[in-house]
Structure formats: structure tokens, C-alpha cells
Structure to design on (177 residues):
């Protein structure tokens, strides 16, 4: 049996049609991103997007994106998306993509924020295993389904702007819109 070692590289404009198709497949009930959204995300200078593939130059099996906002010494990072094709789940691809995103945040010593559907138990467990804590609930965040999202925070590598500080500003983990 041959084990596939996935390749993580930069998501490029040539990957957009595949990503838009995966969005329609995976997120049909919650406004999947069209190709134009991927183009805008890739063109924004503060965003980094990664692809995971089974082989160099191969089709996208998953993708992930993060933004770095703020200025030197006070950056924050926000995960925009992590998605793995249904045919590739359970292989550690989501974990590998998350690792790539966290390397971006750690390189600028930034805390990381994200939203995740409250019913996405697999993703929540992955995030919690990687140092994220729940900090609130966004009611009706996903549209048009109306599904709620947890907001989650992971402190910076040094602890600067750590979870306690973020929770204080978010109302000690209370619910917010």
C-alpha cells in the first residue's frame, strides 16, 4: 500500500475553478463562495491562501486562508476558511492546512480568531486540540441556513494578546452578535 504525502503550496488563480466547485459541493446550504470571491481573497495583500494536493501541480484536495491585520507588534490573524474535499477527509489534510495557517500567525506572533459552525464537531475538536478556546456565539451567522457559529481564539505564540485579554474584550466569552 502506497501512502500519499500531501503537498501544501500557495493557492493560485488557476485553482479558483476547482475551489468554487468544491464550495458548491460542500457548502450548498450556506452561500458557497463563487470564483469572484476567491479572486478577491487571493488579490488582497494581507491574505495568504494555501492548497493541499496529492501531488505537485495536482488538483486541489483542500484549501485554507488566513488574513494578517494590524501593524508590527500588534498583528491579529483571522482564519477565513479551511475546506477539504469529501473524498480526502480523514487523512489529516485539515490538520496540515491548519498547521500552515498557524505558522503564518506564529511568524508575526499574532493571536488567531475564527468562526465555526456549532454543529461541526470534527472542526471544533481539531481547533481545541490546537489551542483554540470558544469565546462566544454568533447567532444566525451562516446564511441562508441561519446556523450559529462559535467564535474561537488561539493566543499568540508568546502569549501577547492572549486568550484572557481577548475574552475580556469579548465580555468574558459571552455571546455577541
Amino acid at each position: 500500500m502506497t501512502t500519499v504525502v500531501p503537498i501544501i503550496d500557495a493557492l493560485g488563480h488557476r485553482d479558483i475553478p476547482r475551489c468554487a466547485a468544491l464550495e458548491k459541493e460542500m457548502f450548498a446550504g450556506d452561500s458557497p463562495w463563487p470564483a469572484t470571491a476567491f479572486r478577491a481573497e487571493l488579490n488582497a495583500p494581507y491574505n495568504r491562501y494555501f492548497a493541499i494536493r496529492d501531488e505537485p501541480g495536482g488538483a486541489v484536495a483542500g484549501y485554507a486562508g488566513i488574513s494578517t491585520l494590524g501593524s508590527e507588534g500588534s498583528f491579529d490573524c483571522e482564519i477565513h476558511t479551511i475546506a477539504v474535499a469529501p473524498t480526502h477527509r480523514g487523512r489529516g489534510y485539515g490538520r496540515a492546512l491548519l498547521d500552515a495557517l498557524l505558522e503564518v500567525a506564529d511568524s508575526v506572533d499574532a493571536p488567531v480568531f475564527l468562526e465555526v459552525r456549532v454543529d461541526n464537531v470534527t472542526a471544533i475538536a481539531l481547533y481545541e486540540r490546537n489551542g483554540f478556546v470558544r469565546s462566544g456565539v454568533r447567532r444566525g451567522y451562516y446564511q441562508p441556513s441561519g446556523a450559529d457559529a462559535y467564535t474561537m481564539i488561539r493566543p499568540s505564540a508568546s502569549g501577547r494578546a492572549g486568550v484572557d485579554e481577548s475574552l475580556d474584550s469579548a465580555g468574558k466569552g459571552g455571546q455577541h452578535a
Summary: The chain has five helices and seven strands. The chain has a mean pLDDT of 90. The longest strand covers residues 60-69. The chain has one domain: 7-169.
